[in-house]
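[AMINO ACID CHAIN]
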Amino acid sequence: MTDPAAILEMSKKDLVELYANVLHNQEDIEATIKAIKDELVERMDTNGEIVGNYSLVKAKRINFKIDLEKAKELGAVKPAIDNSVLKKLFDKGVKIPHEVTSYLLIKAVSKKE
């Protein structure tokens, strides 16, 4: 792990390269975590157990496979604010209470040689 104090001394180029390396490592770590979890689930005989100082619990989530029309028939649709419409109105000058959140997007670019 990079010393946070060292980050303050790095150039923008070095910071972006560090970001890309850490992001790659994060992807590797997340893949490893998934493989470990999958293996632990396979080895569990029950839905929950204690292993060392850790509690393992098999959780389930239902992901419904249904289209909007069927959901409407079942009364399972609720109204929601349409942010894209609000953005268009705001861009035209309509005064709408809001706050702005800033964030940085970093993407790799390929250089054509």
Remarks:
- Helices lie at 4-7, 12-43, 68-73, 83-91.
